[in-house]
Design brief:
ABC transporter permease; MetI-like_sf; 292 residues; transmembrane; globular; transmembrane helix; transport; mainly alpha
């Protein structure tokens, strides 16, 4: 085995150091928020908490878990993430697959139309008027339908479909498969990597839904978790009943610990899902981005 040159070893060492520092720069703020969420309000206000809890307590999470409005917003976010991601994948695949096949006559026109949407986008006011005329304002459909297909994700999925050998598609047709049966039984099993990759992109987008919810949702019961989190942080909408003995120690304190606990709860689920899809994510990004 040929030994790596000195310059290559220096490059690898420098690259390792840079990536380590970059990883720490991303992880340490999250660790600080986690530490504050498990610390007492006195310690947080005094600035004693860095990367390890001070005066360890569960009271911040107990308050968050007892707040029905936070759970309602959490349920809305879970719903729009699950249903929205499913809609996104179905809609994107339904458009990307036919455009990827040579026998589809109008594929170039469709690609150009999708490309135009990446360059030009409608202003906010016409979008709002359209949503209102369709009766979608103050409904969760306003958070699901407008972004059903991402142009960027469309091109990734189209590139992946184009790499499926035509012989496999032709063999399915020879065996008598209808187009829908062929897509379900042949194309979809081969597309798990790209589906997992784009599913993560779409799911993260829905989980972090914020601007559309501000524009189209006025009903407090339909506000997703990110909007609720913004209200807690910016507007200090944390009302602690002093008569509740369980939370009496928080009644006259700055609720920074509660805010941090809410941030952790809003962040952790999407972070925990990624490791299970990492293998498919990496493979989908590599295969779907190279055209042979």
């Amino acid at each position: 085995m040929k030994k790596a040159s000195a310059s290559w070893q220096v490059f690898n060492a420098a690259n390792l150091i840079f990536l380590t520092l970059l990883g720490l720069a991303m992880f340490l703020p999250f660790l600080g928020v986690l530490a504050q969420s498990f610390s007492s309000s006195e310690a947080v206000i005094a600035g004693k908490v860095w990367f390890w809890p001070v005066d360890f307590t569960w009271i911040n999470y107990q308050y968050v878990f007892s707040d029905a409005s936070i759970w309602r917003s959490f349920g809305v976010t879970v719903y729009i993430t699950a249903v929205g991601t499913l809609i996104n994948l179905i809609a994107t695949a339904s458009l990307a697959y036919p455009v990827s096949r040579q026998e589809y006559v109008g594929r170039k026109l469709v690609v150009v139309m999708v490309l135009v949407t990446m360059v030009f986008s409608a202003p906010l006011v016409p979008n709002f008027i359209l949503m209102k005329s369709l009766g979608l304002t103050n409904t969760l459909w306003s958070l699901l339908l407008p972004g059903a297909i991402s142009a960027f994700n469309f091109f990734i999925m189209r590139s992946f479909f184009m790499q499926i050998p035509s012989e496999i598609i032709d063999s399915g047709r020879i065996d008598g498969c209808t187009e829908l049966r062929m897509i379900w039984s042949i194309v979809m099993p081969l597309s798990k990597p790209v589906m997992a990759s784009l599913g993560i992109f779409y799911a993260v987008g829905h989980w972090n839904t914020y601007m559309n919810a501000l524009y189209y949702i006025n009903n407090p019961a339909l506000r997703p978790l990110q909007v609720k989190l913004r209200q807690l942080i910016d507007a200090n909408e944390i009302n602690i009943d002093p008569s509740a003995s369980q939370f009496s120690s928080l009644a006259h304190m700055d609720p920074e610990g509660i805010k941090m606990a809410t941030i952790i709860i809003a962040t952790l689920p999407i972070v925990l899902i990624y490791p299970f899809l990492q293998k498919h994510f990496v493979k989908g990004m590599m295969v779907g981005s190279v055209k042979s």
